Amino acid sequence: MAMYDDPANRFVARFLGTANLLEGEVQGRGDRQVLRTVGGLDIPLHSAGSGAARATAMFRPQNLSIVDPGGAVDNDQVRFSGRIRHREFLGNLIRYVVDLDGQDVQVDDVHQLGAGSFEVGEVIDLALDPDQVRLLTA
C-alpha cells in the first residue's frame, strides 16, 4: 500500500493504478506552499516540498469528491469547477473525466441505487483534501 499511497515518481504512480498528475510550480503563499498548476489552479501543500521549483501533484480519482455548487467544503479542502468530458459506468462506481481549465482529472463517484449521475457537458464542483496530494519531483 505504501507505494500506491506515496509513489516515488510518475511511473510508479501510473503503474500502480490510475493517478491524476498535474504539473506545476511550487510557490510560497505566506507561511504555506502551493503548487500552481500549468492551468492556473492552486493546490495547497501540507507537506514541505523537496525544494524543487517544478513538481507534479499526484492524487487518485477517489481523492476527489463531487460537491454541491456553492456549498461548503470540509476543513481546508480545495474546490475546483470543471466540465465533464467523459463518463463511464463501472458497476460500483462512475468514473468521470473532468476538464479543469485545460487539464483533465478523473473522478470516481460511488454508484448508489436510485442516485442520480451527471452528464457529459455538465459543469460540476469538486473538492480535494490537500492531505491526499503527493508531490512528485522525480
Please specify the SSE layout and strand pairing.
Elements: H1 2-5, H2 10-15, E1 20-29, E2 32-37, E3 42-45, E4 54-59, E5 64-67, E6 78-89, E7 93-100, E8 103-110, E9 123-128, E10 134-136
Antiparallel strand pairs: 1-2, 1-4, 2-3, 4-10, 5-9, 6-7, 6-9, 7-8
Low-pLDDT regions: none
Shape: globular
In angstroms, what separates the terminal alpha carbons?
20 Å
The overall number of domains is 1
CATH superfamily: Nucleic acid-binding proteins
Rg over CA atoms: 15 Å
CATH topology group: OB fold (Dihydrolipoamide Acetyltransferase, E2P)
Order of SSEs, N→C?
Answer: HHEEEEEEEEEE
Please bin the fraction of helical residues: under 10%
Let me know the average pLDDT.
89
Shape-level CATH architecture = Beta Barrel
CATH class: Mainly Beta
Number of strands: 10
Could you give a short account of the major beta sheet? Answer: 5 strands, antiparallel
Query: What's the oligomerization state?
Result: single chain
Q: Record the strand order, biggest sheet.
A: 3-2-1-4-10
Our count of helices gives 2
Describe the structure in brief.
With 138 residues, this protein is mainly beta. The chain has a single domain (2-136), classed as OB fold (Dihydrolipoamide Acetyltransferase, E2P) (Beta Barrel). It contains two helices and ten strands; from the N terminus they run H-H-E-E-E-E-E-E-E-E-E-E.
